[in-house]
Amino acid sequence: MPSLGADMDRGKILEWRKRPGDEIARGEIVVLVDTDKAEIEVESFVAGVLESILVAVGETVPVGTPIARIRTAERAARAGPPARTELPAGPEPATRAAEPAKPPPPLAPTAPRPRPSPGRPHATPLARRVAEELGVDLGGVSGTGPDGAITREDVQAAAAKGRATPSGPVAPAGAPPARDRAATMRSAIAAAMERSNREIPHYFLETRISLGPALAWLATLNAARPIAERVLPAALFVKAVAVAARAVPELNGFWRDGAFVPADTVHVGLIVSLRQGGLLAPALRDTAEKTVPQLMSELRDVVARARAGKLRSSEVSGATISLTNLGDQGAERVFGVIMPPQVGLVGFGRVREEPLASGGLLGVGPVVDATLTGDHRASDGHVGGRFLAALARALAAPEHL
Amino acid sequence: MTRDALYAEILAALSEIAPEADVASLRGDLPLRDQLDLDSMDFLNFLVAVHQRTAVEIPESDYGRLATLDALVAYVGARAAKDRAQE
What we know:
heterodimer; A: alpha+beta; CATH 2.40.50.100; Chloramphenicol Acetyltransferase; 2 domains; 20 strands; 27% helix; B: mainly alpha; Non-ribosomal Peptide Synthetase Peptidyl Carrier Protein, Chain A; globular
């Protein structure tokens, strides 16, 4: 079960789009997963043949649980034993299903399998599920499985002896939460924001950016375009953030295992508010490489699908920096909360007319207040200041965006 | 198209953008975006839907005059009549 956003800890299989034996191309949609926030189409990150499905429709499993096996194409082409990759390992430790009769499958060829994180006990998915059902805290159970993994028997023994501490009320595994989407959305956001504010020492910077040149450039662009292809300032902001993130790479990436890991490309995550309440944060891939009109059409598409609750796995994960844009009806400025494991969040308030001093004269023109929230573990205010300066430069010369 | 028919067409376009809203209860004389909490993306999609249903071109420079439903209906009606006169 891949991690489809920082706020997801489990997912429910809604529909398998592929059957065992089917060929799968890289990027092809394999399975539809329900997170607490939306239905996500999960794409394969490898090409190959679907060998087996490990989790049935209707079942809910924690992030990191293998849900299918794919025999990869390049290994199958050779004469050697078939390589298997578990779909998809995701950033969480991929605990292996207990299958004593089989030799351990080779590791995923695309990425090294992450070691179990210290905060999470090493346990089989079945053991986790049984532990949830029995209210057993895995932290108090010693494992007897391979590599010291906690097995179902260990959990049952612990529950029988009554020495495991109850872990409080948990949602029954395999059953859909009784609450509606709005409530699960709220609790997913609550969990992510709690984690962010608990773990990340935020710092906040703000700068006012004159939008005269940018809006004039947009007006000229739009005058020549049919209504369905017109570009909103939001697309310009997305591009400007990507350009600034490329110029100041210290804010583009992730905080992982106590260190900053820069990303090698920029995927701007866009915080989208939903009409029915709540937020989603789809990423626009390779944002810095795309033109402003191209980004506008992706923006319209992704916002429409986010609001319909239909996003793809490559969109809901992988953002390297996020952008929140309150639009032209919102407040004048916004100081956001970082989406872990990212280290920066850019906020744009409402575009409005303000008095502006320039060249010793006072005029009136459109401005926007741009803010940066930074993770102080990964960068300092000086870096943040350089980022906002790069953002202002980008918006002052929109023809270069 | 009569004004009532045009009004109904525009409400139908609005329902595409805000399916959860009771568009029949909207006030025609008050700012539309405040009543429905439409952001700039919603508003653009709404005008695209109006264009698709009425074939009337709405230049971006006129957006500011289209704050209420009444103003929008009057604007689209006048543009449609002008287009017909030119044919």
